[in-house]
Protein 1
Amino acid sequence: MNVYDEAKLKLAHLHTRRHFLKSFSAGLGGAALASLGLPSYALGANPLGSLLGGPLSPRPPHFAPAAKHVIFLHMAGAPSQLELFDYKPILAKLDGQVTPPSLLEGRKFAFIQGAPKMLGPQATFKQHGQSGAWISDHLPYLGTVADEISFLKAMHTDEFNHAPAQLLMYTGNPRLGRPSLGSWAVYGLGTENENLPGFVVLLSGAAGPDAGSSVYGSGFLPTVFQGIQCRSQGDPVLFLSDPDGVPRDMRKASIDAITKINRQQYEETQDLEILTRIAQYELAFRMQMSVPEAMDITSEPAYIQEEYGTAPGEISFANNCLLARRLVERGVRFVQLFHWGWDAHGAGKEEALNYGFKDRCKETDQAITALIVDLKRRGLLEDTLIVWGGEFGRTPMLENRSGQDNPFVGRDHHSDAFTMWMAGGGVKRGFSYGETDEIGYEPVSGRVHVHDLQATILHQLGFDHTRLTFPYQGRDFRLTDVGGRVVREILA
Amino acid sequence: MISQRFSRWNLVLITILLVGVAFLIDPSGRSSSIFRFFGRLHPAMIHFPIVFVIVAFMGSVVNRFTKSERWDSLVHISLFLACWAGLKAVFAGSWLSQTGGYPSDLITLHKWFGIGIVWSSAFLLVVTTAGSGIFQTRMVRLVSWAAVLGGLVVGGDLGGQLTHGRGFVTQYAPAGLRLVLEHPDPMKTRFDLSTPDVTTVYDGIVSPILMEKCSSCHGADRGKGSLRLHTVEAITTHEGDEPLLTAGKPEESLLIKRIELPEGHEDQMPPMYNAKPISHADVELLKWWVSSGASFDQTIASVEMPTTIYTILQAYGLGGIRTGVFALDVAPPDTALIASWRQKGVSVDVLAEGESLLSVRCTVVQDCIWGPEADGLAANVTWIDLRNSDLTDESMAGLGRFPLLTRVNVAGTAISGSGLAAISGHEYLDYLNLYGSMVDDNALQHIELMKKLTSLYLWQTKVSEEGIARLRSALPQTEIDTGDAK
């Protein structure tokens, strides 16, 4: 069969009775509505309808936003709140005592078995700033900006293993398949800079997040909303540069041709994934010029490099913090950082509170502080929300897997109580919300669930989290599932 | 086939039976299990009369168009079957309603619609079989058909709401259609929260509660215990042994104390047996009003609102509280101008759905500040971002035409300061970013006038330390960021 015949056959397939009825009835309904003189937004009430103008074009949120950008600093592996922010002097007194059974009854831990010993704080704490926030000496830099931060001291989650807890944190569900926080944000808002992705992911540390790229995937949203991983070493985005022997103008011509064909195909099938494909080809082409510029931190002056503690040309968290600022400055909506290696069980040197954990603090403290200061003096912190945290917390008990003398100290996963913090983006400054009991084991007030955190982040971006939905498999889905409460107490 | 005489006797019989249903089946009673079984068939049964009515209607339409009487028998038999099938459904429905659990206002309405439809069908049968006389007039025919068909639609919708909840049909209707069709949500109409910056707490929230829960005994008609709560005067002029309201102290206010008495106490208000109970949320709202001063003229927006109160009011439809430029009545922006502005490379974002205010960003300021689009939309722009643009002191003069600016970002531009004169008188200006620009101490005379400013960014500018000190004393409310680590 030659190409022409094949095309004719394909066309005939598309003009089946069912297809005709479908497109006919939709068109008729639209025309009828339009003739009723209804406002145009009534026609766009279908969330898919608003994507047709270009999935990345800017869209207004539900209400005027407090934040236009989010930088989420995820400490993958879950840092211990008891060594950083949740100061528990009584826990120090209980150090070495066997945990009473009343604290263990009905509990399930990832690793702890039997009756573990209590473990006092492995850090010295001091109060910082006018707000008097307790921050440990592991984070000497962060203490200087304590008055910019709102702490959430009674966070809790439903999952006590890394991958499901990370999925819950980013997709609102511990299993695979849902869109991530950044994808929801870009789906809702579109992008501000058409030459850069709306949602950028920067990884550092020895490994990526345990749950893999699903924590920044687009799930059932059109794939144009997925997080794009940029690298501070080598090509910033993989597979972005032109193939050998293909000059840029030829690339342009071929993308234009492909777009035309794709448009035709879209008109025939109305498949949204085709619009996504078109947008991605075009974005990739524009990104060839804009991404290398945005990702080039060597153009920053020496004092900035020094403040952040960057290591140009290498993979480092500090580089990523500086990149985050550069991306936000250029209009990227959502920058997601993952820094791996906080899973301090004490089963080895790298994952011990007295070794690897301290290194992680050193790797991140200076850069995070520099990021806050740098955004602030540029006037960007007001509309950039920084979120810091892990996927869960750590137990007040010592985890000693081997049961023998162990030079390494560690804590097990703990889902009931942990600390996260936010800064900028319309949250209170120098504030702390929520409290845990005397040993940091259970929240006693101001509990904030992961869904509440998500609702709050979306709220700052201008969304009612119950209305930011996407129809999939017969029902409207949302990030916060059936939960979520905006933590108004921390909003400025 | 069906004679006029037959159909009249039919109408009489149907009427008697319907009266029987309406008055003999007590909706609050309990039916025996066989009736309950029959009652639960109601959702299935109602479809039979609907089908018969539709068949009858189609038959008479065909008759009309073919100008014949060929389908008359079909019409008559269908209507006859419709009214008896409908009567069966009414009986079933009445027994079903006795099983309880349905909102009483809806079910009463639904029941009367059902009865009305059945009676109208029987009446319609009389009309269609009538040879001559009053029943034969076109008007009577039309009205009877309209009553049956319209009744079916509305009655059916009410039934849908009973089974699936209010708003079931309209939930996914397009917004415009929804406005026409939707029944007002009682949660959205109980309090007046649409303009929290104008409406007082008393008018919007407290008075509706007092009217609903208290005024049947303590109102215009009755003043039990010589207490009336229906007007501001009645409340403020009340004299009693104990103060009715003590501003700031709900625990010393009789109004609250009586409501909070333990269940069964003889002074408990509202009294247990002859008044509507008051909800916990209402009590919280009243206490909030008293503890914030029991004022009659404080607006909802001006009173500090704890999270619990906010949560309650949000359920009653309180949107975001609007202040500053958001409280203004700004005309919607011209969408054609927005489109042509975008064509020229200016980024224009509507701040939020249904909002008239715009956020604008550009690097070439000519079109952004001076073009015809800027002329047409100047009164809508509230955020302007001219970071690293080619802005000069001269071109900045154009910002004087943007009266509602709240955020102005001119970081990294070449302005030296005189251009700031254009925005120094802006009433709502709250954020000014001059970081990395060329401004020096000459700019201070203009900045000093911006009394509403909450944040000012001066990192990497030529403003001197003395200048900063001068600004700090002139603008004590403003947070001035010079980039120095504190």
Protein 2
Amino acid sequence: MLRVVRRASMSLGKRAFLRIASILFALLLTGFILSILKYNSLQVYGEMVFGAVGSSYRIQETINKMIPLLIMGLGLSVCYRAQFMNIGAEGQFCMGVIGATYLIRLSGTSLGAMTIPVMMLFAVVFGGLWCLLPAFLKRFYGVSETLVTLMMNYIALKLVSYLQYSAWKDPKAYGFPKIANYPDEALLPKVFGIHIGWIIAISFVIIIYILLFRSKLGYEISVMGDNFETARYAGMKTTKILFSAALIGGGLCGLAGMIQASGIEKTMNDQISSGMGYTAIIVAYMSRLNPLALMVGSFLFAVLLQGGEYIQSSMRISSDIAEILQGMILLSILSSEFFTEYRVSTRKKADICSSHKTCSY
Amino acid sequence: MKRILIIVMVTLLMVSLMACAPVEKPETSNTSNTESGDTKTDSNDKKTVSGLKAFTKDELKVGFIYSSPIGSEGYIYVHNLGRLALEEMGIKTLYLENIPETSECEKAARDLIQQGCNVIYAVSFGHMEYIANVADEYPDVYFNHCTGYITKNNMSTYMGKIYQAQYLAGIAAGMRTATGKIGFVTTFPIPECVRQVNAYTLGARSVNPTATVEVKWTSSWYDPATEKTAATELLNGGCDVIAAYCDTMNPQMAAAERGAWATGGTSPGGEAVVPNAFLTSAIFDYATFYKQDIQEIMDGTWSSTGGFKWRGLDEHVVKLEGISKNCAPGTKEAVDAAEKGIIDGSLDIWKGELKDNTGVVKVKSGETLTDEQLLALDWFVEGVIGKVG
């Protein structure tokens, strides 16, 4: 019979081999699908990479895709390290956009140069509070945060739709459901052709790295994440730690929303999140909740997204096929993660235990 | 160990970046061609009226931006037939489908231009502002937007006057309905759709003065499920003819399931889908427009300033697809007479006196609606049940 067994540990070489093998496996598998569809798979892969990093314009576009994934990935890492299973990045992102847009509707251009900082504050507060509610329910009523955060995504998304189609609809748009564009004061300036979201993202990589690995709160978060009872026994204020993690996580997701709205979209609409909140979960786990690794992980994922879009026009591959390719590659990489932690054994329970120093099941 | 892994990944990334660097060269030289190369090219190059370069057939690369999947029917499908007609002429084309009406459209346009496109056609109303932004960035690229109202030196707006064909379809519906109740399923309360509902109603009431047309909005360009539900609701309310202007044939199929009748909008071929319900269909023939427009670019006569490029029955950009066996006797004669009138100008469907559906006179007797007024049309004519917005 087959058994899934946790691995004691794995050497770096083996781990690297497994990852590379998984990527090769994904390429082979998708190559098979592509050959059924009569495409030259090598050419498709080449075009994907070329489309993502082949010119300065494309690198800019890839980085545009990377910024929200990175910032949300950072926020989620804080939550996950505290064992707060926040699936609600999508919703917190939307609330951030709503917060930013709400400020613009309140103040218009009257804040001048202070518009962007205040927008950021609004976005962080909206996103953070949206994430605090499930933390509150978890702490005081034992409600599963996974479910609550997931369900709150739909509420936030529908709220955006409602505002776009009714309450905040631009009366000058000839009946088209659209919210008026932000004024120029509310648009992020550009540095090297990319909106300054990339500078904000890099700053937060450093901040979250210090927070997680060099601060008291970070230490408390990791202790509480490893074992809640230990943290409580050591006299840590677990409620405070949990709420801090939720606020930081939700706040960063909200900030990512504001950056997307102000830097790219220039308004709010119900397509603005387009599933990035869910993608960020994958990116965070792929990067093993490490801020530095997240920079690489989010970049690689952005390459996959941007390359997937490029081949649609250059190779005339339909958007569905491009999405299947992305999905296959992702699935293989994720399943390799599984094999770095576990292995499949055909031996009996006793044999496995005797051959390992630790046996955990 | 994690740290080493990160280092390995970063190095891999750097290597992959460097490995791609030499490939960049032909790309950049290619883009400079489209971005600034035009000003430096030889003096014997023809220029259009707008001062843009007149491209030859080999130089042309036309990019299309579609808001929904191409599919096998509907609005995007007819535009794609136009693209295929250009391909048949030997012109290179690229397209991107399923582009939402967000900044994604801006990115799509830039992506196409970076791949060498020098003419862009964007077909959805919500793409307008984004195309206008990109048009400012690339003054040497031709931009064309369908159904909107923004024009620039290098950006024109074009549209098939589908409302003319809808007027004719309305006649067929008005003669067929037994209950006097007609249902109309369409997308957003934008002027383009309001015009069609109004024209359809005027057509129906020209032969059946007490007929009403009830409108349902789907709030999406492509939402097969809602399109069907909306039609079912109209049928439940007593409608026995369903008209639709959306991206699928689902409203017509809902009518067929109830044994009611239906008229089509946008793409040809409705009779094959719902043979027993199909009356007729108001359809586009954008291939005619695209061939003409591209010819103007090649000839150097293209201009965005000479008014909106609204083409109607007379230029064959819109038409009525045959009168089916399901139509009431005499329909063909009535439709043909109206079509002839619209083409030779003796029939102006917007001629006053026209009241809106709250009883206010909107067009006085002896007056008519100008293209500018039609562009911003935000009221329903008498006989329409529903509200704009």
Protein 3
Amino acid sequence: MKRARCFLLRGHFWVGLLPWAWMLLFFALPFALILKVSLSTPELAVPPYVSPFVLEPGAALPHFRPDLASYRRLHDELRALGLAGADLQYLAAWGGSLLLAALTTLLCLVIGYPFAYHIARSREAARNTLLMLVMLPFWTSFLLRVYAWMSLLDSSELGLINRLLLAAGLVDAPLQLLYNRGAVLVGMVYSYLPFMVLPLYANLVKLDQRLLEAAADLGAQPWMTFLRVTLPLSRRGIVAGAMLVFIPAVGEFVIPDLLGGGDVLMIGRKIWDDFGPNQDWPMAAAVAVTMVLVLIVPIALLHRHGRANGNGAQR
Amino acid sequence: MVQDSDSGSRPRRDYLRIEGVTRRFDDTLAVDGVSLAIAEREIFALLGSSGCGKTTLLRMLAGLEAPDAGRIVLDGEDLAAVPAYRRPTNMMFQSYALFPHLTVEQNVAFGLWQERPRLARAEVAARVAAMLELVQMQRYARRKPHELSGGQQQRVALARSLAKEPKLLLLDEPLAALDKKIRQRTQLELVNLIERVGVTCILVTHDQEEAMTMAGRIGVMNEGRLLQVGTPGEIYETPNCRFTAEFVGETNLFRGRVDGGALHCEDFPAPILLPADADPDDGGEAWLSVRPERVALSRAGAAPAGAGCNAAVGEVAEIAYLGSHSVYHVRLANGRIVIASVASAQWRDAAPPTWGDAVRVAWFAPDGVVLTR
């Protein structure tokens, strides 16, 4: 039999190719385009920028003349950090986004862990039903669910929560529940919770029950068993869930736009403003590129950390 | 009554008392009214096939399972209301359940970390070191469990369960996860170690050799009941029921009706003479158990056996040569198989019988054991 068959005839070559082709087409290529735009000069035209690749008469290949003004702007803000009266709108948006995403991740973890733990400890027959209930909200349009929150949090006496508070006599006047950071946080935690629950569940369901029994047998009270055994062993689930929540939360645009007030600065909104009303595509693209870079670094670090530690080990 | 717990004193006979302990899962009785007393520093084996309730009983001693009825009293303390994490018992789990995220020394220290009032860091370190030295695992203190062989993991698990100096050590199939070769060596190692530490120990196993090698006394369990308790010799030589006779070692079991001091059995050509001390009711159903090594095998033409012997002639159906001895399956005229275990030394002067040869099987009446259940 001839051993050296053409690699083009092998099935697994093509199966392996698909994800690469996908990533190239839908991540690398768009990213390259955005990178190009970020290095352009804004202009009142369609499209509203001048490409950094300039084809001069007589030259075979275009010259590359990047305009770093957008990145310089971000760099200037970074340098002006701490100076009084400095205009820090991008940094402030960055800070707002990271803070909100971090808070969202933390709250999702605190709320999602008991969810995942309970489902993983349920009878096998009940688990699928419970998982389905966690995902049930996905069956409704995301936008619809955010609008539902708007009517729940409505700040007039018509808002459902305000009506309940007024009826119960807990408040005299309706509370300002909508269009602030709190409302955005509620909406984000609500929307992203399943992304925390699912990877945590997948991890916790594999936890060897006998390890918990061994801990109890060795004198660990239930909460000690949780801290010393369950929690460290579910670290990978926590990391996976946190990344699935944190990364999209940083760039979230719809929820802050609908539930947040004008003062809720977020990077997604900033990009929207620059691409839209401000017609400053290079600036918007530069922010988008830095966003990808800023998020890739911690992911890569976490990835390497996880690999170096092998067996879900802690110290 | 004044009890003396000095290590120099005589071990107390009923250090651990299990009284009528019952555990029900849905419709089945996993453990059915087991009562048992275990002496201080005794090594006791619960022997039975899987699903006989031995592990459930062990888990109730550890507090991982609650009995539906009955009492467990250890060193004068009723354990019923004591949760697992406060019991003075420690268990070595089947396949060890070592914490994969902790090193060997952290695994051993885990129980000591839980002590209240807290132990000083130095004391924990000293006791961990002592434990690791006991099981000769000092060199592996910084390894993670997955970096160890099965035998090394077993030693770490043992060190972990001994670190808190429990009053009662529970071993759940302690060596089942090991290769056969290592297992036999480890059995004696483990016994030596447990005796050196001087801890009372209950082990659960389905392996009769393991039980007989390691334990001073054995309790045979089947379907949730404790059928017989005794030394390995007692269990093997004088089983009290058919299950024990068949489960522990091999045996020839003849079923029949008792009449005039003999067992009338359809399988055997003549009424079977019973041991003189057996006194079964006339007319009742009974079984006779004869161990294969008690059955003598000779060529059919040789001189017949003397008085007081049960004998029959048949032909050799199977032979299993095992070096020191051979196991012969002899088929009698009526089709019944009688198993005889014959020492190889017996055939010093003549060739051993081979397949199809006519042979006589015989045993002395006192070598049989009469069973009525």
